[in-house]
Specification:
Elements lengths: L5 H9 L6 H13 L9 H14 L3 E5 L5 H7 L7 E6 L2 H11 L8 E5 L2 H4 L7 E6 L6 H8 L3 E10 L13 H15 L3 E6 L5 E6 L1
Parallel strand pairs: 1-2, 1-4, 2-3, 4-5
Antiparallel strand pairs: 5-7, 6-7
Helix pairs in contact: 3-4
The chain binds S-adenosyl-L-homocysteine and calcium ion (CA).
S-adenosyl-L-homocysteine binds next to helix 4 and strand 2.
Length: 210
């Protein structure tokens, strides 16, 4: 078993295909203008999302938590010709920035923004999803899972980000870490999915609907 040092993580990143130029610009814009820039998926996780999406070539993707559109642009890379990604967020200001970057991408016609509370928008989406990415407020992860599970096709994927919450799930003490630990327990006990908790970055729960 190897110890993953930051040097080794850097090595893995250098030996991974680079991100498209627009995403590099978006990431730099985020670091310069936002104090909560760590919310953005970033290079390595972004390449993972892109690779996973390209492997399954989804026709319908739902993203819960757009922020500046970084992960949306990564996930959209794998969409079919007639594919569409819906991305939901409650913050009008970051949504404007996300739209301005997506507008410059060749994928712009495949990405649909919805502004508002995700828990209110999800029931209005009359679609069957091949891939769902949960990445909004952590206290609602279980609610998002319950809201989407019947809209995912058998064999479809549900991914949830930050499920290790910087390690705080080991001794949960605040609302976010308690909710995420409860979410992980709930998924583990839910017979509708098979799950694999990936230790990529801040933890990614990968579920396949049975
Ligand atoms: N997926 C993005 C990061 C998302 S950050 C990426 O990887 O690049 C989390 C986002 O969830 C924030 O933009 C926040 O505004 C949004 N959010 C929080 N609560 C929400 C809610 N109830 N409904 C929709 N979006 C919400
Ligand atoms: Ca995240």
């Amino acid at each position: 078993m190897i110890e993953i040092s930051s040097d080794l993580i850097n090595y893995a990143e250098r030996k991974t295909s680079p991100e498209p130029k627009l995403l590099q610009e978006l990431k730099e814009y985020c670091y310069q203008n936002y104090s909560n820039s760590s919310m953005l998926s970033g290079f390595y996780q972004g390449r993972f999302l892109s690779t996973l999406s390209r492997l399954i070539a989804p026709r319908r993707i739902l993203e819960i938590g757009t922020y500046l559109g970084y992960s949306a642009l990564c996930l959209a890379e794998g969409l079919t010709e007639d594919g569409k990604l819906y991305t939901l967020d409650i913050n009008a200001e970051t949504n404007r920035v996300a739209k301005s970057f997506v507008e410059r991408s060749a994928l712009k016609n495949k990405i649909e923004f919805r502004l508002g509370n995700a828990l209110e928008i999800i029931p209005e989406l009359a679609e069957t999803f091949d891939l769902v990415f949960i990445d909004a407020d952590k206290v609602n992860y279980s609610n998002y899972f319950d809201a989407v599970i019947d809209k995912v096709r058998p064999g479809g994927l549900i991914l949830a980000d930050n499920v290790l919450w910087s390690g705080k799930v080991l001794s949960p003490s605040d609302d976010d870490s308690i909710s995420l630990d409860n979410f992980n327990k709930k998924i583990q006990a839910d017979g509708r999915v098979s799950n694999l908790l990936l230790t990529i970055r801040d933890g990614l729960m990968l579920c396949i609907k049975n």
